[in-house]
Amino acid sequence: MEADDFLHFLQLEKRYSPHTIAGYKTDLKQFEAYLKDTFSVSLLHAGSQQIRNWLSGLMGARLSAKSINRKISSLNSFYHYLEAEGKIEANPMAKVSPPKIPRKLPAYVSQTSMQTLIDEFDFSHDFKGIRDKLILEMFYCTGIRLAELTGLRHGDIELSRATIRVTGKGNRERIVPMVEELKETYLQYLEEKKRIIGNDTSGYVFVTDKGKKVYPKFVYRVVNFYLSTNTTVSKRSPHVLRHSFATHMLNNGADINAIKDILGHTSLSATEVYTHNTVEKIKSVYKQAHPKA
Q1: Are 157 and 205 in contact, with CB atoms under 8 Å apart?
Q2: What does the alpha-carbon distance between residue 272 and residue 186 come to, in Å, rounded to a whole number?
Q3: Hey, which residues are catalytic here?
Q4: For the residues 151-170, what does the mean pLDDT come to?
Q5: Please, are residues 55 and 73 in contact by the beta-carbon 8 Å criterion?
Q6: Residue 38, CA distances (Å) to 2, 8, 41, 277 in order
Q7: Dihedral of CA 196/227/118/135: which sign?
Q8: Quick one: pLDDT at residue 238?
Q9: In a designed cystine with 236, which of 4, 194, 224, 264 is the match (CB 3.0 to 4.6 A)?
């Protein structure tokens, strides 16, 4: 019961996305099942040691630190909610510490490869080709997330100011600049979309060949296909284009706080991971150029 109330709270009050709420639900159900099978207690009566035992078991099962930290975040939010509602006297998560996650450098496509792909690839001049090119440019020129791209509406784009209103995590809005090249491709797309689809009542920018709103797997396949034509990166996802955008911006002298705002990060630490790519680039140049390296 408490878990259901909490999930409704996330949906109605916090306005979390269905995907995020589904993750919380899964985590709570798994922990609830563990408590019932191992200790015969409910979520409401769980203690710190029982939580630590569960997490220890997950580590023993080789669950990644990132996945475990997500479950910790779910429990943190849940028990904080219960405490605020007066349903428990003390938060059992207060004595639970998350495992450290080894920081991985974000995979990205080289600047030369991205320029070659966008400027020299022979995209078809029909609706499909222009739409696919716009998808790639939108990711690379703005750094938006996959969910942000699929939810983008024509009303979010203000051509006169060359800006895009992006709705990110937690329904937070931000304004992202629209470079001239992206604007030109968008105008071409608008013209071709109207010719093929007609009056689009949905208002979504990106649609399939049949006029339906694009979905994540559709966009992923588009990005994967084009990145496979001229790059050697193992990961060819939309998020790699977001990483490429941030890395190239930083390498070309952009202020890290500006990159943070464009990406929609709430914390600078999330953006600072891209500085590591810059450091690795400096090391590489140093090793190649210095006579003592």
Answers
A1: yes
A2: 31
A3: 145, 169, 239, 242, 265, 274
A4: 94
A5: no
A6: 20, 28, 8, 45
A7: positive
A8: 95
A9: 224
- List the structure tokens of 19: 């995907």
Q: First vs last Cα of the chain: how many Å apart?
A: 64
Q: Give the architecture (CATH level 2) of 2-95.
A: Orthogonal Bundle (1.10)
Domain ranges in the chain with CATH number 1.10.443.10: 111-289
**CATH number belonging to the domain at 111-289, selected among 1.10.443.10, 1.20.120.1810, 3.10.180.10, 1.10.357.10:** 1.10.443.10
- pLDDT of 281 higher than 80: no
Q: Is 146 exposed, middle or buried (0-12, 13-18, 19+ CB in 10 A)?
A: middle
Q: What is the mean pLDDT of residues 154-168?
A: 95
Of 193, 104, 189, 176, the closest CA to residue 140 belongs to: 176
CB atoms within 10 A of CB 199: 5
Residue 280 has pLDDT above 80, yes or no: no
